[in-house]
Amino acid sequence: MGIQVSALHVRRSNLIDASPDRVWKEFESFDRIAAWFGTGHTLEVYEPRLGGETLLSVEIGSSRRAFGGPIVVFDPGAEITFSNNWETLGWAVPTFITLRLSAFFDGCLVELFHHGFERLGVDAASELQSYEAGWDAHHLEALRAIVES
Hints:
The chain is α+β, with helices and mostly antiparallel strands. The protein has a single domain (9-148), classed as 2-Layer Sandwich (Alpha-D-Glucose-1,6-Bisphosphate, Chain A, domain 4), CATH 3.30.530. Helices cover 23% and strands 41% of the residues. The chain has helices spanning 20-24, 30-37, 124-134, 138-148, and strands at residues 9-16, 42-46, 53-60, 63-75, 79-86, 95-104, 107-115. A seven-stranded antiparallel β-sheet has the order 1-7-6-5-4-3-2. The N and C termini lie far apart (31 Å).
């Protein structure tokens, strides 16, 4: 069972010409997910199981900042959701990142949600707007290129 995506969310999506089971193979190991999800930021840790850790890092200014958290939903072929917070100077509570796969005609709809911003209280609107401007679909484009090659 997946996690409900909250009202305040960023959504990016892509259609891939493959089944959800085929697309899921790109989520099954660190090396496979790093090939597409580790672009634009670095995938440091990925333990593909419920409770496993996901840790990424990104260059901000002149320093490297880490973010991520434990996997709270791991539903092979359908969804992975991990808790998301900055390691230092983080929010009081985490947000969530969900990657969801759904059969769509003869292919797979892959959706990336960054959600849970309402948990940030008075900072919710500014944080949502910041991430709305920051997320693009290049991760999902890279996933599609790998699967359809």
